[in-house]
Amino acid sequence: MKIIFAGTPEFAAVALQSLHEAGFEIPLVLTQPDRPAGRGMHLHPSAVKQYAVAHQIPVAQPLSLRMDSKDPQRAAEAKRAHELLLATDYDAMVVAAYGLILPRSTLDIKPCINIHGSLLPRWRGAAPIHRAIEAGDAETGVTIMQMEEGLDTGPMLLIERLPIGPQDSTGVLHDKLAAMGARMVVKVMRKMEQGVVEAVPQPEAGVSYAAKISKEEAALDFSQSAREIGRRIRAFNPFPGAHGEVNGVTIKLWGAEVLDADSSAPAGQVLAADAQHGIVVACGGGGSLRLTELQKPGGKRLPAAEFIKGFALDGLRFA
User: Fold this and answer.
1) Which of 136, 99, 76 is nearest to 11 (CA)?
2) What is the DSSP string of 26-89?
3) Which residues 6+ apart lie within 8 Å of 174 measured at CB?
4) Which of 3-12, 145-154, 243-252, 261-270 shows the lowest per-residue confidence on average (mean pLDDT)?
5) Which of 19, 40, 200, 284 has the greatest CB tally within 10 Å of its CB?
């Protein structure tokens, strides 16, 4: 079976590697254009492109696949990409975190199969892993679905569940789901080869949308409950990194534990900052949170015990 693969970040690269190592022929990879990154802001290829180039797989990087774009350059690139797809011998396209909309003209060529990091129809959209943690979901998973024009609305081909651990961050869950999705998509493509795959419509109930994460969301509000703040810290790790402000200094917070002890102190007040108790902060509703990993501007991520050696928090308050 010949598969065109469309994806961009590491989540997608894991699936591409799995399909390639399973012996599927991959005549073409689509990925987003190289982006500036690092201190020098030099152009860097996506994780998917790096894997494709290393394994001599042809790569195309159109700005858009929409031939009706009002931008002449994007429309022209989309037209060239469409012609390339038509000229390529393939049986299906596998899509994982590609980042570009697949228009009807692309979906109509051959079946398009998507690897989505949630239990659809829960968390359709751009940031399902972040939103599942932020909302306090007990479980998540991966859905392999057949794509259609709606946002993650297509029929499901395979779904598997995964519990969300009490300390799972987006980074941790991302890696678990990437490995799960990579394994599952190989299974689905094998079934497609044999003509035995079954498509099941998504339930109409339980639809929610995982909006793209913005940097502005990472500013914590300590008037929220300790559980809400703890979930946000985990949800925004590693991107964009939750933070609070102390005496005008922005402190990134990478890890925390919800404590059972109640407090009558104002929300944001540092209740303890020592080797015995760690860094404990009062939260809304009388709860409190122990901060376990922090980072000051220009510094490294440090365990709380190390952080307080170079940044005094006694008697201060997180804004």
Assistant:
1) 99
2) EEEEE-PPPEEETTTTEEE--HHHHHHHHTT--EE--S-S-TT-SSHHHHHHHHHHHHHHHHS-
3) 10, 11, 117, 129
4) 261-270
5) 19
